[in-house]
């Protein structure tokens, strides 16, 4: 269990892949984008 192991977190980091052991971190929308989206909805209505 180490860098060469496909199923471990360390192995995923070494290979540069993602999976259940090392899922991708989803970016949260920033406050600025939320404000811009709200303004667009108001203008289009």
TrEMBL record:
The answer to keyword Ribonucleoprotein applying to this record is yes
* The UniProt record lists the keyword Nucleotide-binding: no
Q: Where is this region: Disordered?
A: 1-30
> Got a GO cellular component term for this one?
ribosome
Q: Which residue ranges have biased composition labelled Basic residues?
A: 1-13
Keywords tagged on the record:
Ribonucleoprotein, Ribosomal protein
Q: Which family does it belong to?
A: Belongs to the bacterial ribosomal protein bTHX family.
Q: What is this protein called?
A: 30S ribosomal protein THX
Lineage, please? Answer: Bacteria, Pseudomonadati, Bacteroidota, Flavobacteriia, Flavobacteriales
